[in-house]
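Prompt: I keep going back and forth on a fold encoding question. Comparing notes only helps if you start from a blank page. Show me how you would write down a chain together with its backbone fold. Please set it down just below, with no commentary around it:
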Amino acid sequence: MPVIKRYSNRKLYDSQARRYVTLDEVRKMIQTGEPVEIIDHRTGENLTSSTMAQILFEQEKRIGGLLPRVMLAHLIQIGDSALQNFQESVRAFLDPLQHAEDEILRRLDILVHQKQISPEEEQHIHALLMNPALRSTYLSAEGNDLIQTADIQDLQAILKQVDDLEKQLDELMRKKTPELPPG
């Protein structure tokens, strides 16, 4: 996995390829599925997520309409805790199996803390439910790729509907709000 160092002058250096790279080159790496890690050269802080957000910002500037304005405004308005919930929802959408496994572990932990099951029972249930053979069975199930494709197409259709609704709302607001005279 390439480790890309970000310097204080915002330059990006691919330590594996031993050369400077552009943000667009990092975008292409990510698009091809290559895992990348971007770290701050001075502090060692992981900047991968913020760099990916910057890539999305640049795409939004270039092509526009990547995310509907209503959605972006809502994300800004809802605050940190709601953003964490949104982040969890996106993770669940992108990796539903991992989300289900995380939820099983969380619930088992609650049951142990509430003394509804013993730690031994928790370990037994955990071993049964988290059996790697069950995971591979799920992943190799027939038609799984069709489900993922349909989900992505559904998401794209929903985003288009939200964008259309946003345009209709803007139009209604323009008709409703009287124009003020200049001055």
User: Anything to note?
Assistant: The chain has two domains: 3-63, 86-173. The radius of gyration is 23 Å. The helical segments are 23-31, 48-63, 69-94, 96-113, 119-129, 132-139, 144-176.
